[in-house]
Amino acid sequence: MSTIIAFLATFAVLIIGVGIVMYVFSALGLYTMAGNRGIEYKWIAWIPVVQLWLLGDLIDNKMWGFEYTNAVLTIGTVLTTILQRIDSTAGFGVVLGIVMYVYQAFCYNKLFKIYAPEHATLYTVLGVIFPFLVPIWYFVIRNNEPDLSVLAD
User: Fold this and answer.
1) Nearest-angstrom CA–CA distance, 11 and 66
2) What pTM, to 2 d.p., does this model score?
3) What are 90-108's pLDDT values in tens digits?
4) CA atoms within 13 Å, Cβ hemisphere of 24
5) Alpha helices in the chain (DSSP H)
């Protein structure tokens, strides 16, 4: 019995450690990209969920014809989380969650087209299948020179 408890405790510590590393990779990547682009409130990269505001700013706040992508990402994520806690069955929260996941994937793709155009599709597909990779991609591309011509599309 104590072996099982020791194994579960070790597993929990490992999962928490990996989560912290992914958080730091994500925050550091967004912070560096925002700093290189001259965004003055780059410090919000260190605030979970609010860091999505920077993702919107880094892609010029436009996706699918919507302006204020930063607000859509941040508020949509918070609203999705609240609605899914209220009703975890196949209700509106689940549908909104799927819509937000797809919207975020397209936002990731636009960011990757700006900072790593030759790998944008690969990074996006792998990031959708394995979401833990997105913070790693942020960290990897953080010092790349942005191709801002993508924003004109």
Assistant:
1) 42
2) 0.87
3) 677 788 888 999 999 999 9
4) 6
5) 2-36, 51-58, 69-86, 92-115, 120-129, 133-141
